[in-house]
Design brief:
With about 500 residues, the chain is an alpha+beta fold. The chain has three domains: about 200 residues, 3-Layer(bba) Sandwich (FAD/NAD(P)-binding domain), CATH 3.50.50; about 80 residues, Alpha-Beta Plaits; about 90 residues, 3-Layer(aba) Sandwich (Glutaredoxin), CATH 3.40.30. The chain is about 30% helix and about 30% strand. It is built from ten helices and 28 strands. Strands 1, 2, 8, 9, 10, 11, 19 and 20 form an eight-stranded mixed sheet that branches. It has a five-stranded antiparallel sheet with strand order 14-15-16-13-17, with helices on one face. The protein has a four-stranded mixed sheet with strand order 25-24-27-28, covered by helices on one side. β22 and β23 form a beta hairpin. α1 runs parallel beside α3 and α1 packs parallel to α6. The N and C termini lie far apart (about 50 Å). InterPro entries: FAD-bd (IPR002938), FAD/NAD-bd_sf (IPR036188), RIFMO-like (IPR050641). It comes from Streptomyces lancefieldiae. Keywords: FAD, Flavoprotein. Its cofactor is FAD.
Length: about 500
């Protein structure tokens, strides 16, 4: 059978949440994108079920929130099992409970509606740079698919095929301990929120549909080398030893084990091949951070890759994807390692947990940890004179545009940059040479104090502040426009 050939601007390998998010971002910008997925059908396993405030803001900037309905909001999260109020200034404070199957369904519908092409039942077997592009080969039930693209992005999970085929350096540590988990119907056990018993850690949460997610770790046990998923009878045995309860009469809908491995790619960019999500970093999925970290990787990369493909910006912009997200990932992996020690450690970690519980009662400590987990405190090095806003996301404050009242995410829906004139009145002239990439809007902030004296701010397409103007001067504006949006176009 002759091989099928396909060309695209970008091939995204992996149609999980991260790959779908990236494909949607690229298609939103007019990029021709193909999603390559080895599964035969949509994923029915809700491994992750938590969306944090920053991710919800991102979804708002793409008008996706209505598709999620009204998920429950839980202000209380945790740090290593110690209760932590995650409430911070945001349109969506706290954490939102959304099954991964729902997140994938929303993102898939969005990406496909914008023109992304999804190729299921195709497993990647070869990939590499060839000349000024990337060539890949995938095997499906109908034969071989050969793809040619300008860039390829690996979003294919912690056991990334792309990473293996490239032999990319992925330093870190393997799992030493693990949690067993399962979604089980037909059992009646008490809800448990990180209950530390004499023999181990037990967690149980009953969903509205009657299914209970159980997770268990026996103190002193070590992670096994697994070639297949954990078995339900294994969980039944450990659950009985830790809690004294028998759940063997339940029906397992999904069973797996996850460990405290911690690894991160040395480089998120390998020429024309890039990595995002768990393909770039492997961590214990504590508190939903793994999923949210990956979605935010995709949001950072999407607009940069789109500008590069359009010829508006050079490689230096694409390089900032690695610089920015590698630093964020390194910080998240560090806090997850600390939490894993507190969660899975035996009784000897109790003094540490007690001290942390006392510290979290201090507002500055609580806010610091909540910002770290929610992603709201991410600040990139964007250059320029020091200012409290630079590099951070646009602060949470309502903005008045004429008679309308809105929040910053609403201004980013076009996918381009925005120069905000915070003095109200008529907007300043759009920056000549960048009007195809940056719009200008006059607004009046409801809380001027949140903007630390800024008169104007330049927002990147991801909502992070790239330049701050005070008074009438425009010093540094053109440099910021060049850095984040490429050189000006011809007049």
């Amino acid at each position: 059978m002759a091989a099928e050939r396909l060309a695209a601007d970008v091939v995204v390998v992996g149609a999980g949440p991260v790959g779908l998010m990236l494909a949607g971002e690229l298609a939103h910008a007019g990029v021709d994108v193909v999603l390559l997925e080895k599964r035969h059908a949509s994923n029915q396993e809700s491994r992750a079920s938590t969306l944090h405030a920053r991710t919800m803001e991102i979804f708002d900037s793409r008008e996706l929130l209505p598709d999620f309905g009204t998920p429950p909001d839980e202000p209380r999260g945790h740090f290593g099992g110690v209760p932590l109020d995650l409430t911070l200034p945001s349109t969506h404070p706290g954490q939102w409970k959304v099954q991964q199957t729902k997140t994938e369904a929303v993102l898939e519908e969005w990406a496909l509606s914008l023109g992304a092409d999804l190729k299921c039942k195709h497993e990647l077997v070869a990939v590499g740079e060839v000349g000024d592009g990337v060539e890949a080969e995938a095997v499906g039930q109908d034969g071989v698919l050969r793809l040619r693209c300008r860039y390829l992005v690996a979003c294919d999970g912690e056991n990334s095929t792309v990473r293996r085929l490239l032999g990319a350096d992925f330093p870190g540590q393997d799992a030493g301990r693990e949690l067993l988990r399962a979604d089980v119907s037909g059992i009646d056990v008490p809800n448990r929120r990180f209950e530390r018993l004499e023999q181990g850690l037990a967690i149980a949460a009953r969903r509205p549909d009657g299914v209970t997610r159980v997770m268990v770790h026996e103190f002193g046990s070590t992670a096994r080398e697994r070639t297949d998923e954990a078995r339900f009878d294994e969980i039944v045995t450990v659950w009985k030893r830790v809690t004294g309860e028998d759940i063997s009469g339940g029906t397992p809908l999904w069973v797996n084990a996850f460990g405290d491995a911690s690894r991160q790619l040395t480089h998120y960019r390998h020429g024309r091949i890039l990595f995002a999500g768990d393909a770039a970093h492997r961590q214990m999925p504590i508190g939903g951070q793994a999923l949210n970290l990956g979605l935010q990787d995709a949001f950072n990369l999407g607009w940069k890759l789109a500008l590069r493909l359009a010829g508006k910006a050079g490689d230096e912009l694409l390089d900032t994807y690695h610089t920015e997200r590698h630093a964020v990932g390194r910080r998240v992996l560090a806090n997850i390692r600390a939490q894993a020690h507190m969660l899975l450690g035996d009784r000897t970690v109790e003094p540490l947990r007690t001290v942390l519980g006392e510290l979290i009662a201090l507002e500055d400590v609580r806010a610091r940890l909540a910002g770290m987990i929610s992603g709201l405190d991410v600040r990139y090095d964007v250059g320029g004179p020091a200012h409290p806003l630079l590099g951070a996301r646009m602060p949470h404050t309502a903005l008045h545009v004429g008679r309308r009242r809105l929040h910053p995410a609403r201004l980013l829906r076009s996918g381009g940059g925005v120069l905000l004139d915070l003095r109200g009145g008529d907007a300043a002239e759009p920056p000549a040479g960048w009007t195809d990439r940056v719009s200008t809007t006059a607004v009046l902030p409801e809380d001027p104090g949140a903007l630390h004296g800024a008169d104007r701010v330049l927002l990147r397409p991801d909502g992070h502040v790239a330049w701050v103007g005070e008074g009438s001067g425009e010093e540094g504006l053109h440099a910021a426009l060049r850095r984040w949006f490429g050189p000006p176009g011809r007049r």
